[in-house]
Design brief:
With 383 residues, the chain is an alpha/beta fold. Helices cover 39% and strands 15% of the residues. It has two domains: 2-11 and 268-379, Aspartate Aminotransferase, domain 1 (Alpha-Beta Complex); 15-266, 3-Layer(aba) Sandwich (Aspartate Aminotransferase, domain 2). It starts with a strand and ends with a helix.
Length: 383
């Protein structure tokens, strides 16, 4: 299989991720922070080390404010529901994934908040001035997808963050597609909360993600349960990390994320990204030479991740995906990619989305060439 669906889940993982998950879970797969025997203490040390690794990655200060969840969608639900107050106005974008769109929609539908969606331009980027113009007296926060999972464009977080700080607004960033691929400095970018998932660019397994919450962000806990600390207390603990965590952690997921983050750091975010973008540019240039094929927001390799959305004239995107899979053994993603407003902006909603090819650190030139050959042959079929 030629795997070109890394925006969904990076695959394969580095061998060190598989090996560490297996060895750690076999030898110390016990509940962290719940008991005083050696294996439990060592397990808690691994969990804390992972908090430290990720806190450093985002340039945070306190590893205890790095909390784990199932994934970015899970964290975004906790953050958005924990911050929304009756009568608030929230500014977000048309580039968002449903992990942001749906929680905000439900809060709006329930009459809690109002929402404004900032459009993107023909190149796939938002204009920070549009955020400034959208601010109202009751605006409380801005929520921005750092990198689009459909078109791969990386948004100007520092400029948006500066506007938030100027107006005293909270700045929430969905880093699902960028954590581990694009440097994120929460302090320099003015970010109050960053949410991430482990199974994409951080090279961890599925089922693990989290958030980092800066000091002073008034997020309320929305889940309550066991923490292994002060068990006689009737209310859930307010301090971090317990405020956003309850029950036993996904230890196997944390272990895989630990190994994945170390692998990314050792190989270098910039080094990995440069290789992937070079492959993307090779793919983009050659795909754009094929008759009857259209690409979206793919004019330059600057400020983007290696994601290419396309359509072949006369074919449904799903049919192209099926042909790539069955006839060429190429795995990709088709449809709306859980980001309906992106396709509304692209004008691809009525034609049921796009074919998305997304590259990762284990892709090679031969994979790109095979995809180009396959798309060329599909585009040549009489319609």
């Amino acid at each position: 299989m030629i795997y070109l669906d890394n925006s969904a889940t990076s695959f394969p993982k580095p061998d060190v991720v598989y090996d560490f998950m297996n060895s750690f879970y076999r030898s110390r797969g016990v509940s962290p922070g719940r008991s005083g025997f050696d294996a439990a203490i060592e397990t808690e040390e691994m969990v804390q080390e992972t908090r430290i690794l990720l806190t450093e990655l985002f340039n945070g200060d306190d590893p205890n404010r790095l909390t784990f969840s199932y994934n970015a969608s899970d964290s975004l639900n906790m953050i958005l529901q924990g911050l929304a107050r009756q009568g608030d106005h929230v500014i977000t974008t048309m580039l968002e994934h449903n992990s942001v769109l749906r929680p905000l929609f439900h809060l709006s539908q329930d009459g809690v908040i109002e929402v404004t969606h900032i459009p993107f331009d023909g190149r796939g980027y938002v204009n920070p001035d549009d955020f400034r113009k959208a601010i109202r007296k009751n605006t409380s926060m801005m929520v921005v997808n750092h990198c689009s999972n459909v078109i791969g464009t990386v948004q100007p977080l520092a400029e948006i963050g500066a506007i938030c700080k100027e107006h005293g607004l909270l700045f929430i960033v969905d880093a699902s597609q960028s954590a581990g691929a694009i440097p994120i400095d929460m302090k320099a970018m003015g970010i109050d909360v960053v949410t991430f998932t482990g199974h994409k660019c951080l090279m961890g397994p599925t089922g693990i993600g989290g958030s980092y919450v800066m000091e002073g962000v008034p997020v309320k806990g929305t889940r309550f349960g066991g923490t292994g600390v002060r068990s006689a207390q009737k209310t859930h603990l307010e301090e971090f990390p317990y405020r956003l965590e309850c029950g036993t952690l996904n230890l196997l997921g944390v272990a895989g994320l630990n190994a994945g983050v170390k692998w990314v750091k050792e190989n270098g975010i910039e080094t990995l990204h440069t290789k992937e973008i070079q492959l993307w540019d090779r793919l983009r240039r050659r795909i754009q030479e094929i008759d009857h094929v259209i690409t979206y927001c793919a004019e330059s390799p600057e400020n983007r991740n290696p994601v290419l959305s396309l359509n072949v004239g006369g074919f449904e995107s799903g049919d192209v995906g099926t042909m790539l899979d069955v006839d060429y053994n190429i795995a990709c993603r088709t449809g709306l990619q859980c980001a309906p407003l992106v396709h509304e902006g692209l004008g691809t909603t009525e034609i049921h989305g796009t074919v998305r090819l997304s590259l990762g650190p284990f892709n090679e030139e031969s994979h790109v060439d095979a995809a180009v050959k396959a798309i060329t042959e599909i585009a040549s079929i009489k319609r």
